[in-house]
Design brief:
single chain; 381 residues; alpha/beta; Aspartate Aminotransferase, domain 1; Aspartate Aminotransferase, domain 2; 2 domains; 7-stranded mixed beta sheet; 4-stranded antiparallel beta sheet; 15 helices; globular; binds 4'-deoxy-4'-aminopyridoxal-5'-phosphate; binds glutamine; Methionine aminotransferase; aminotransferase; transaminase activity; Aminotransferase_I/II_large
Length: 381
């Protein structure tokens, strides 16, 4: 068959979770917490459903949620946002990314992706008829090489994807990256940003999250995307949003309204309740996840896996070259099937995976008991 996405198979997250299930492995592969969402949010969800909030919601999201998002973004980033014109609630960050790309990328437009990157970016671009242009992050630090980005930009470039904190590496963008972005947008007036900030509340060691929404000149040219699945430990609720200037939001909503129209109504009420009544939840997340990162890295000292630095997000990359010379896909299958711990290989995050890279991604959004049990198995490698 003449397929539209010839390079795409089933996502690595689905493949590895399925394999983990078949082999009863501890799943540190696909990124999701194994602890529950906050109880008040579950209660608010049930209450919304009981109170009859079960039909279509307004296309852009319920006003209560858009207002609560606006208040939070103002408090976190000093952003000045109009909930009516700038915020659109979506079915997860994934839908927001898809809608943003389809709203502005025309056939033949180039979109710069920084490899390694999350696997839904490239297919969204290709389905819109866009041309993905891959630029490598620094192989050692996963920092952005801004000269390489500049060199990749042509008159056809419509969009640049950034992702901070970064999946899979855990790198975060800093002040010098923000300066570089300002220069880039000034020099390339047609360029827009897709800023994937789904891990915005998991930034460690006292660093601050560099949302594009902190910087008016960047916000004026960006879709900023986030996901309540990450912030509230409920990846299966599939609720997120995009913030963009009015003109971009208008185009975004043209796609959103014919893609999903609206997102799961009871969850919108539940998240609005959390944002209004339990704002301290997201304020506590950096310390909560930093403690998990530190505990997990300390445990990995008992293994021959070498942990790379992690500044944000909930993934830990490990170099397994002391243990095995298998390629990353084979290594991750092997530890899943033979050692009972599922991990994610890095190669699916690249258009051209670096030869000889021996890295696997482990998710530490897990209870201590889960991490301890997994490391006890990994220590035998
Ligand atoms: N971007 C990144 C970097 C992610 O890791 C994920 C993971 N799920 C998403 C976007 C999509 O978010 P959601 O699950 O809310 O669709
Ligand atoms: N974002 C998750 C990860 O990186 C995967 C989400 C999914 O499977 N769609 O593990």
């Amino acid at each position: 068959m003449d397929t539209k996405l010839p390079r795409v198979g089933t996502t690595i997250f689905t493949v590895m979770s399925q394999l983990a299930m078949e082999h009863k492995a501890i799943n540190l592969g696909q990124g999701f917490p194994d602890f529950p969402p906050p109880e008040p949010m579950i209660e608010a969800l049930a209450r919304a459903a009981r109170d009859g909030r079960n039909q279509y919601s307004p296309m852009a999201g319920i006003p209560e949620l858009r207002e609560a998002i606006t208040a939070k973004l103002e408090a976190c980033y000093g952003a000045r946002i109009d909930p009516g014109a700038h915020v659109t609630v979506t079915s997860g960050g994934s839908e927001a990314i898809f809608d943003a790309v389809h709203a502005v990328v025309r056939p033949g437009d180039e979109v710069v992706l920084l490899d390694p990157c999350y696997d839904c970016y490239e297919p969204a671009v290709e389905l819109a008829g866009g041309v993905p242009v891959h630029v490598a992050l620094d192989p050692a630090t996963f920092a952005v090489d801004w000269q390489a980005v500049e060199a990749a930009i042509t008159p056809r470039t419509r969009m640049l994807f950034i992702n901070t904190p970064h999946n899979p590496s855990g790198a975060v963008l800093g002040e010098s990256d923000i300066t570089a972005l300002h220069g880039l947008l000034e020099r390339h007036p047609r360029l827009l940003l897709l800023s994937d900030e789904v891990y915005e509340h998991m930034v460690f060691d006292g660093a601050r999250h560099e949302s594009v929404l902190r910087h008016p000149a960047l916000a004026a040219r960006s879709f900023a995307v986030s996901s309540f699945g990450k912030t509230y430990h409920c990846t299966g609720w599939k609720l997120g949003y995009a913030v963009a200037p009015a003109a971009l939001s208008t185009e975004f909503r043209k796609v959103h309204q014919y893609n999903t129209f609206c997102s799961f109504t009871p969850a919108q009420y539940a998240v609005a309740h959390m944002l209004r009544e339990h704002a301290d939840h997201h304020e506590e997340l950096p310390a909560f996840y930093q403690a998990k990162r530190d505990a997990f890295r300390a445990m990995l000292g008992d293994t021959r896996l070498r942990p790379l630095p992690v500044s944000g997000g909930y993934f830990q990359l490990v170099d397994y070259s002391e243990v095995s010379d298998l390629d990353d896909a084979s290594f991750c299958r092997w530890i899943t099937t033979e050692h009972g711990v599922a991990a994610i290989p890095l190669s699916p995050f690249y258009r051209h995976p670096p030869q000889g890279q021996r890295l696997a991604r482990l998710c530490f959004a897990k209870d201590s008991a889960t991490l301890e049990a997994a490391v006890a198995r990994l220590a035998k490698l």
